[in-house]
Amino acid sequence: MARLKMGMIGAGGIAVNRHIPIYQAMAENVEVYAVQDINIERAEAVAESHSIPHVYEDYSEMFEHVDAVTICTPNKFHEVISTEALNRGVHVFCEKPMAMNAFEAEKMLQASKENNRVLMIGYHYRFMESVLLSKQSMREVGAPIVTRVSAMRQRKVPGWGVFINKDLQGGGSLIDWGCHLLDSALWLLEGSKPVEVSAEVYQRLSKQPNQINDWGRYDHSSVNVDDHVSAYIRFDDQSTLLFECSWAANIKSDKNHISISGESGGINVFPYELYQSKYGRMMETTVETKDQEHEAAYLQAENFIGACLGRESLKSRPEDALVVSKVIDAVYRSSEEKRSISII
């Protein structure tokens, strides 16, 4: 049986805590062959602790020795690394978001098509049990009317890494966190094309000194990314999406929410509930699901490896991730220009 040789680009927390353990649990189909990081000492330590045989200081030198790479770098480097890897004939799994903006994302998609190589973006919420069940249930919902999405965290600005650095990340709570639920919602609404966005972007709480923050200390004076976003998205079928995300909100507790009101029924994703008018009354169907991020990430990796080996098609296509990037661009531009933005 063929085994995929996998190279890890970036040896930070997401690589060590998620991707490497998952790949090594799939040893019959994939070998974690090499790791690269700009901090060579970090790469060597990760290689030693995870029994990875090869270490590279320059990721370009890795491409001729591997079949695929997993990119776990700051967003600024997603496009340049992905495009080079794809042009060198290497499959790419890239952590979300796809890139800093839609222009870069389009270059990645083009390289994938031109070289006939797999490109997958790490929107693992699609693989949550509730989301998968909701996808199967959309025929019961019918044509969508209004969708509501909330990705809200109570005082959880990431106090590590480069999450508050716009030059390296491109944005804050939206591009890092809200994008997950936005992607899942757009996937559920497949067939409805977003055409216009009106939004407001905030940078208030995280800029205040002496903030209570559950996810570590950070320099409030260095924050130059969004900590709260609200948006109104119109679709080509006249349906709409109400969106809000934050990683520093003054709210009672964290909230992950997607719900869709349609012509035939309604659905709530977390927890899964289906609402329908039947037998002269409103009926509610509930199913207990296990929405575990590690399990979703495992299914995502399984799908990526299967696609690279030619055994299955991607359940999270780069074309879909490009649409997410276009919506994100429109959100930021709408707030900056104080007007609605059309999405082409």
UniProtKB/TrEMBL annotation:
Gfo/Idh/MocA-like oxidoreductase N-terminal domain location: 5-123
GFO/IDH/MocA-like oxidoreductase domain ranges (all copies): 140-267
Protein name: Gfo/Idh/MocA family protein
